[in-house]
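question for whoever is on the cluster today: can someone run the full assembly for these? two chains, 378 residues total. i dont have access anymore since they changed the login thing
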Amino acid sequence: METFAAAKVAEYFSGKISRRQLIETLALAATTAGFAEPHAAAAATPDPALKVALVNHVSYTCGDFRKAADWYSKMFNLDQVGATQRDIALPFGKRGEQPLGVTAKDVPLTHLIIRSRDLNAPAENSSEPRRKSKALVNHIAYTVADFNKARAIAELKRMGYANPREDTDYSVHIVDPNGFDVQISGIEMNALST
Amino acid sequence: MAYLFKRGSSMERFVAGLVDDLESGKMDRRQFCQTMALAATVYAAGETAANAAASQGFKAIAINHISYACPDYRKARDFYASVFGMEMAPKSDNGKQAFLTFGPEQGKGGSFLITRNGTTATRSTAVIDHVCYTIPNWDEAKVRAALSAKGLNPTGRDGSLHVYDPFDYDVQFANAVQETAFRR
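^ ran it for u. tokens below:
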């Protein structure tokens, strides 16, 4: 909480947040279970050794990985690299480029791994069957360059998507050839703007 | 990138944001200059790429967000915040879902995870069977010690590990050596 409060105070003094935002944020934090109870707070404290910096990859499993990969390449102008008999990678950029907003040299480009495989088989480096998840990633939103909603809808229609589902001012949804929900977003769409 | 920093609009906003960070002391002069240099390089590279790019579709530049549905979003929220250091976006928790941010600043390349109440019912024949996150400054001993302290027993190999979250969803996390698109 101390670190959190210090950060918020710093944001306030830098004018990043208003006095009201500072008060509301600290009040909410102080009354949230994780902060209010000392032992719980200790257990909930993240360890810096595990702090994530970016999505490394999204693992997309389907019946025909080549067909899906071609669709994502065409829709999002992604190269295909490292093909095997069962999967292929689609990085968000060229070799040697840095991810958007990242200067650290040990954070590689995010990529999709599109694959076909038996999810009932044991995972890599494990002899046990994969667990049956009770959660689901039900869509992925992609940030695209120069997003403009009207232009995006027009482009989707030109590509054969007559009725993209409109979302905020900065995004639309379609489904890919496997019926998976794909959100196309502008950089303006983020956790602070929605 | 030309498509990202469109003249007179996105780039100006980007630079304005950097200046704000500099003036507020959030970024020092060296960081400011490095970031501006990188932006200029990326912009120039983007101009070339844009000229050569296919004239259809979109140019994906980042994962904007991941929508994760589960029986109790609070458990997932707390797990990803406490284990992987994701940060809850202000006012994003509405009792049904919460936004957890990570990576670069929001609006500057950062992503977020939406943990929300929902079912695993889907009409999709494809599945996102896991998401892998990059951890910079990877220290194998510290990573494994931190996992142990959280009561998590990872599988995988050095530099690329897996754990299950509270809903048995496979979460991978790795360093840049073990997991990169260009070394598979």
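summary bc i know u wont read the tokens: The longest helix of chain B spans residues 29-52. Chain B touches chain A through 107 residues (CB under 8 Å).
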